[in-house]
Each structure stands twice: as structure tokens, then as C-alpha cells.
């Protein structure tokens, strides 16, 4: 089995050794700029524990089965899935495979409100995001998204987990004498119940989408977002910065980086975005939509108008999250007019 190559194509199908008894399996994503999600297989006695599962797609299932075959196992040898968060590219394949093979699915307890919202019989997948867009003054974008709503969630893909994991819960993986202790650590921000799994003895952090090596994760994109997802995200980053450093095993992107180094970069990035957001407010822009239109987006520094509607939504909602943090810090004050939140320099 080849060792993982940080300089290789991280999306290439295969099985890559990250550490003794730990293997990275990239699985495809449909029409997604991320292109793949990393599932990590951890040797677990006579079976395997998988961290995340991939999107419930036939191609992803076939590639996962082939990867496990190269490890001398099959889908039925997966004892459990430790899922970092409830986005479909991490959760849904675990639910499908559990139904067929009886593996267990474990998820952070704070994901329960979002999962219950998805399973609500009248759930509208885009409603909460359109409401937030309107409060940001992005009425035209909200109407555009409402005209092309996402498909209704399939309840068979969003069943509840077998076990809710609390913050600092420890999952012991492996046979006696070779145990690996994985500690679940709540890191809200990307979603309210996001978990990372820390292997302190092995010096590894299975980071999900919380710490990504080359991009910043979306903030608070979920069915039941909390009041201030960016504040949660920054607090979670500082939490990891205060823990012992570890090798970063991300859900998207190559391995090879260290957690502390990347956390410092993410904190610096959001510090710059907060400064730029405050500058836009001081120039007279007052809504989330107006400020988002004044900022560059992606590493290519595109304008908001150059983004497709979905990514324009993410950009506008992230801008509103930055404005909320500025308000919490007393750097801007808020008013409301006709349901739209306005921000003014304090």
C-alpha cells in the first residue's frame, strides 16, 4: 500500500497509508468544486472504523468497496462510522451501508437539531437560507434561489445515528494491546455539531471540514444554524491551537500539514476579512449583501456577481456572520428596517 504523498493528486482514487493502521480513501463528489472527500479507514481489531463515509452515490460505494478489498476487507467489515458532521458528503453513505450491513453510525450530539429539521415532514431545504439572505438585504438572490429550489431530502438518507457523541467522548479502536483512543472534540462553526477526532498518542487529528489545508470552510451552512457561527468557529480554532500540535488529516485536500500552522493561517485570514468588512461599513455599506458585493471572493478574487447563485449565497451569509462578530465586539451597531439588518460603524 503506497504511503500518502502530500504533493500528489489528493483526489485520485486509491488507498493511501497515512500512519500505521490508518488509510486515506478519497471518494468522488458530484459536480462539486471540492471534487472528493477523504474517508479515513482505521484498523479496528478484526474490522475497521471509518471516519466519515462519503456521499451516498453508486460510484463512491464501488470505490469504497474496492479500497477496502485492497485492505483485505469488505463493506461488511466496517464496524462503525465516526461522522464529523451531518453534511451529505460525510453522512449519507454511512446511513445506507448501515441499513445493509449493520454497521453503527456515531455523530455529534449538537447535530441533532439540524438532523431533526431535515427529517421534518414539511422541511424546505432552502427556506432558512433564503430567510437569512432577505435579512441581509439580498432579496433578488433569495428569489432566484426560490425559483430553483433544491430537491426534497430523501428521509432514507437522513435517518438518526445509532449513538450521539458528546464533547470529549473517547472511542477506543483496535484490539487489546494495540488500542487507538480517538477523542471527539466539539468544534462548531462549519456546522453546530461538528466534531474532530484527536489521536493524541498517534499525533493525528482527523479534522473533518473544520481545518482544511488550502481553503476555508463555509460557516453555518446548515438547516438549523446557531446565532453566531463565525464566533463559534473562531473559538473552536483557538481551542485546537491550545492543544498539542498534530498531523492534519482533513476531509478535503492533501495530508502533510500541521494543525497549528494551518489554524494560525485561518485565524489570520478571518482577521483580515473582519478588517475588510469593517472598512466596507465605514465606507457606507450597511447590509450583508452590500458588504459582500464590496469584497473579493475565492483565491481568484472574484466579485460577488461573478459567483453562481449557490456560492453567492454562501458569500453573503459568511459576510453577515463577519458583521455579527463585529457587532459582538462593539465595532458596529445594528438597526433593523423592513426585516433587513443594517450595520453602522460604532
Automatic annotation (TrEMBL):
Gene3D superfamilies: Ribonuclease Z/Hydroxyacylglutathione hydrolase-like (3.60.15.10), Winged helix-like DNA-binding domain superfamily/Winged helix DNA-binding domain (1.10.10.10). Pfam families: Lactamase_B. Residues 36-252 form the Metallo-beta-lactamase domain. PANTHER family: ENDORIBONUCLEASE LACTB2, METALLO-BETA-LACTAMASE SUPERFAMILY POTEIN. This is MBL fold metallo-hydrolase. The lineage of its organism: Bacteria, Bacillati, Actinomycetota, Actinomycetes, Pseudonocardiales.
Amino acid at each position: 500500500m503506497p504511503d500518502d504523498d502530500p504533493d500528489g493528486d489528493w483526489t485520485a482514487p486509491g488507498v493511501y497509508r497515512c500512519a500505521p493502521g490508518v488509510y486515506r480513501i478519497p471518494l468522488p463528489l458530484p459536480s462539486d468544486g471540492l471534487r472528493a472527500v477523504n474517508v479515513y479507514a482505521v484498523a479496528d481489531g478484526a474490522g475497521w472504523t471509518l471516519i466519515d463515509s462519503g456521499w451516498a452515490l453508486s460510484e463512491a460505494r464501488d470505490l469504497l468497496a474496492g479500497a477496502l478489498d485492497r485492505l483485505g476487507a469488505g463493506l461488511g467489515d466496517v464496524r462503525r462510522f465516526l461522522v464529523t458532521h451531518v453534511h451529505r458528503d460525510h453522512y449519507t453513505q454511512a446511513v445506507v451501508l448501515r441499513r445493509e450491513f449493520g454497521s453503527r453510525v456515531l455523530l455529534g450530539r449538537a447535530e441533532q437539531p439540524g438532523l431533526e429539521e431535515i427529517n421534518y415532514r414539511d422541511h424546505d431545504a432552502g427556506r432558512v437560507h433564503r430567510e437569512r439572505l432577505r435579512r441581509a438585504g439580498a432579496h433578488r438572490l433569495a428569489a432566484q434561489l426560490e425559483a430553483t429550489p433544491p430537491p426534497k431530502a430523501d428521509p432514507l438518507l437522513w435517518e438518526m445515528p445509532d449513538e450521539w457523541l458528546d464533547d470529549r467522548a473517547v472511542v477506543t479502536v483496535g484490539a487489546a494491546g494495540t488500542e487507538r483512543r480517538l477523542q471527539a472534540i466539539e468544534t462548531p462553526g462549519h456546522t453546530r455539531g461538528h466534531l474532530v477526532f484527536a489521536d493524541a498518542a498517534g499525533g493525528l487529528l482527523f479534522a473533518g471540514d473544520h481545518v482544511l489545508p488550502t481553503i476555508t470552510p463555509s460557516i453555518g451552512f446548515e438547516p438549523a444554524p446557531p446565532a453566531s457561527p463565525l464566533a463559534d468557529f473562531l473559538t473552536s480554532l483557538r481551542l485546537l491551537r491550545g492543544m498539542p500540535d498534530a498531523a492534519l488529516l482533513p476531509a478535503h485536500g492533501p495530508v502533510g500539514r500541521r494543525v497549528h500552522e494551518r489554524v494560525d493561517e485561518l485565524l489570520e485570514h478571518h482577521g483580515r476579512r473582519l478588517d475588510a468588512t469593517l472598512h466596507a461599513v465605514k465606507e457606507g455599506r450597511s447590509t450583508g449583501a452590500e458588504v459582500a458585493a464590496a469584497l473579493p471572493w475565492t483565491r481568484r478574487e472574484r466579485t460577488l456577481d461573478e459567483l453562481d447563485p449557490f456560492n453567492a449565497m454562501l458569500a453573503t451569509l459568511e459576510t453577515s456572520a463577519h458583521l455579527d462578530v463585529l457587532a459582538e465586539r462593539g465595532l458596529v451597531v445594528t438597526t433593523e428596517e423592513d426585516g433587513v439588518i443594517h450595520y453602522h460603524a460604532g
